[in-house]
Specification:
The chain is mainly β and 381 residues long. It is 12% helix and 54% strand. The protein contains two helices and 33 strands. The protein is globular.
Length: 381
């Protein structure tokens, strides 16, 4: 190859490299611009933005974060072979060996219950120790925990539709209801002082679904608790009641498309312009409902007062990540925002975060434990 050809080849290679570098830089610039625009959109309207990694707590991998549940002033780490309580700095306070195939955790106030879903064992915890572990003879299907540590365990039954067993805060058996006639027990919930537990069941034997609400009364007599039948209701529609709640003394039942409340001697649907209910919570005397008008539609928050009137109703976002509540406040993580509402629906805080949130929990009225994809942190608002 002569000198001229070599020179042309060198120039061609240089131009090729230059063009490739230009294209790479252009692509990087477009990506960065897209990220900046998205971040600005996420921050728009927020009271403040925080980096979760800069808050108090500890970092961990995403796989570990999925096993962490806010509890008291730390987190409960729930594994198949071990349950441990960690402080917000990541120090282990205690741990217990378990053997669960599909552990799920539910927290209420000062107690947390971990049960092996579709398995045969469950256990109760405080921030100091494991309170007890109990084995069942039938598969566990659902669990409900009261604010004082009582629990209701819904299990299969070999010769019936299912059974609900109630235990006190120390794991002492209170009562068991076996459903021979009322259908499959689906959900249970305690009222605020644990004096009653409401159970929903669905009968599928007929041409249409029949949903029942059964209420048990719990009293302390002598040195132990006892439970007895209190009332029973039929939902007058072809529907399945999958969730329940008490709001004060008012009783609510939720299907995929309706909200029912006790009116006189029967449950009746509320005539509200609310679509499909996704989540519900009780804050103070008000009922908080997260709902949407259809699949892939914007989530909205509606608040019902004690007269079942909507006192707040507003869109909140696309993807609900987590929520938590106490007697005074409701915290909601949706998209990359954390909203805090008081019991009346007033927005107390609107915070933009830089990581996806997995779970939320209250430490105090103005302080949250946040489990994100990058770790465990606390934020004060």
């Amino acid at each position: 190859m002569d000198t001229k050809s070599k020179s042309n080849s060198t120039i061609y290679k240089s131009l090729t490299i230059t063009v490739m570098l230009f294209v790479v830089l252009l692509v990087i610039s477009i990506v960065l611009l897209f990220l900046v625009i998205n971040r600005e959109d996420a921050l728009k309207g927020a009271d403040r933005a925080i980096r979760l990694s800069a808050q108090g707590g500890f970092d961990c991998e995403y796989a570990e974060a999925q096993k962490l549940f806010p509890f008291e002033e730390g987190v409960l780490k729930v594994l198949n072979d071990r349950v441990a309580y960690l402080t917000l700095s990541g120090n282990e306070v205690y741990s217990n060996t378990v053997n669960y195939q599909n552990p799920i955790c539910s927290v209420n106030n000062e107690h947390a219950i971990v049960c092996d879903m579709d398995g045969y064992t469950f256990s109760m915890y405080t921030q100091d120790h494991q309170v007890y572990e109990i084995s069942t003879t039938e598969k566990i299907k659902a669990v409900s925990i009261a604010s004082d540590g009582k629990c209701a365990i819904i299990c299969d039954s070999e010769d019936a539709f299912g059974q609900v067993t109630i235990y006190d805060e120390n794991g002492v058996f209170i009562a068991s209801w076996i459903s021979y006639d009322s259908g499959y027990p689906l959900a249970a919930v305690f009222n605020s002082d644990s004096s009653k537990v409401m159970v929903s069941a669905v009968n599928t034997d007929g041409a249409t679904y029949e949903s029942y609400i059964k209420v048990f009364s719990i009293v302390y007599e002598g040195s132990k608790y006892t439970a007895s039948d209190y009332s029973m209701y039929i939902i007058p529609e072809d529907t399945i009641v999958s969730a329940l709640c008490y709001c004060g003394e008012a009783m609510y039942a939720f299907s995929s498309s309706s909200i029912y409340t006790l009116s006189g001697e029967s449950f009746a649907p509320l005539t509200l312009d609310i679509g499909s209910v996704n989540y519900e919570a009780v804050v103070g005397d008000n009922l908080f409902i997260i709902y949407s008008d259809g699949v892939d539609q914007m989530n909205k928050l509606a608040i019902l007062d004690s007269s079942n009137q909507i006192v707040y109703n507003s869109p909140v976002g696309s993807v609900v990540n987590a929520y938590c509540y106490n007697d005074s406040y409701f915290a909601l993580s949706i998209d990359r925002r954390i909203y805090v509402f008081d019991a009346t629906g007033k927005v107390v805080a609107d915070i933009s975060v830089d990581e996806d949130v997995l779970r939320l929990g209250y430490i105090e009225n103005d302080r949250l434990v946040v489990v994100s994809t990058g770790g465990v942190h606390s934020i004060t608002y």
